[in-house]
Amino acid sequence: MSNFTPLDYQFMVRALELAKRGIYTTAPNPNVGCVIARDGEIVGEGFHLKAGEPHAEVHALRMAGEKAVGATAYVTLEPCSHYGRTPPCAEGLIKAKVAKVICAMQDPNPQVSGRGIQMLRDAGIDVEVGLLEVDAKALNPAFIKKMQTGMPFVQLKMAASLDGQTALNNGKSQWITSPQARQDVQTFRAMSGAILSTSKTVIDDNASLNVRWDDLPCSVQSRYGLKPSALLKPSDVLKHSDVLKLSDEVNSQAQKSAVRQPIRVILDRQHQLTEDLNLFQTQGEVLRVGSEGSDINLTETGHQLDLAELMSQLAEQHNINHVWVEAGATLAGQLLVNGLVDELIVYLAPKLMGSDGRGLIGALGLECMSQVIELDIQGVRQVGQDIRLIAKPVLKENK
To answer: Any idea which residues carry the catalytic annotation?
Structure first.
């Protein structure tokens, strides 16, 4: 039987809600929320906003002040136990003299998992783990995968007509999907650490592949301007001014410049990219990928770059948790065949383009139905006039 009370659930739900406020800004760090409660009331709360800045527990403890003594801290992820750019949060909770810590899940990093919990217990603090663990894991699939496997979480975006065509026979494709669907894509880009594409896609569309402020929904724009001090009541702002120094007005231009731009990673084996392309005229880092003379050099076999090696390098050398892929049928097929796709995001427009168009996926060389790539549909929703499907490839060994 669970030892968690209805109030425990209520406070952890709040912590999870707070954690979501950092989904566009925390990478490569995880999204974390914290609530500190005493005598059935919240006395402090916070969330992690950006790597290098204070963690959720720090904001919550600052808000709670002396009320943290004897309180219970609800954290969506095990408090850290090591010194990085910020001190360990477990140490902060100990110094604040909280009586109990409830964390939704352990740190997925096998090298540090459980150490924060043990540090708290060694200090005499009661610790419980596992409250709303499934919800907590859903907050950080990319961070968890990288910590556990050394590989990034890969989302493959595709857009097609209802009959599965991505372009007319002459290559024209703008625009298959609605403005609302293209806006929806911007939110996925904003959450990613890298956008992967090919030089062909970049050149054909003169694509920038960046996060465009004006195309982001208002709800996303507001999150970029949000600071944890927004959790405080107006009467508390002066009292807690040392927590977050907010100006009276958030400058719109400052918000735009603060948008975290994913690294654009472009497969350019034949060195076709030129500096005059929009890709290089917009803010954000660009990494060219090839077999030699590139920013990232990969093994090449049969005129194909080793995509698994690419993903490994992005995770280990560039600290990328989450890769968003926007490319044509050939790269999409290669990623799927090599088992490198964790999730597909497919937009289907209510249009018919005919069999002489260009298909969604390149040739896979399949000869029997047992070889087909099966998908587990995770979600279906309407976006504008289009249908957005979210699906995960089914692993053969799990069938």
So the answer is: 57
pLDDT score recorded for residue 244: 37
Six-digit token pair at 342?
Answer: 């964790």
Q: How far apart are CA 378 and CA 369, in angstroms?
A: 22
The H-or-E segment that residue 387 falls in is: strand 386-393
In angstroms, rounded to a whole number, what is the distance separating the alpha carbons of residues 22 and 28?
11
**β-pairing, 165-167 with 358-359?**
antiparallel
Contact assessment for residue 28 and residue 140, using Cβ atoms and an 8 Å cutoff = no
Q: Label residue 284 left, alpha or beta by phi (over 0 means left) and psi (-120 to 50 means alpha).
A: left
Count Cα atoms within 13 angstroms, Cβ side, for 240: 25
Cα separations (Å) of 8 from 42, 46, 73? Answer: 11, 17, 10
Helix (H) or strand (E) holding 128: strand 126-129
Give me the percent of the chain exceeding a pLDDT of 90: 69
Alpha-carbon span 13 to 8, nearest angstrom: 9
Residues 6+ apart with CB under 8 A from 278: 206, 207, 208
Reported pTM: 0.88
Each residue of 247-293: pLDDT tens digit? Answer: 333 345 545 556 789 999 999 999 999 999 999 999 899 999 999 99
DSSP lists the bridge partners of residue 44 as: 36
Give me the half-sphere count of Cα atoms (radius 13 Å) on the Cβ side of residue 74. Answer: 29
Q: Tokens in use for 334?
A: 């290669």
- Give buried/exposed letters for 30-51 (b at 16+ CB in 10 A, else e): bbbbbbbbbeeebbbbbbbbeb
Q: Collapsing DSSP states into helix, strand and coil, what is residue 173? A: coil
Contact 351, 159 (CB under 8 A): no
> Could you count the other beta carbons within 10 Å of the beta carbon of residue 160?
25
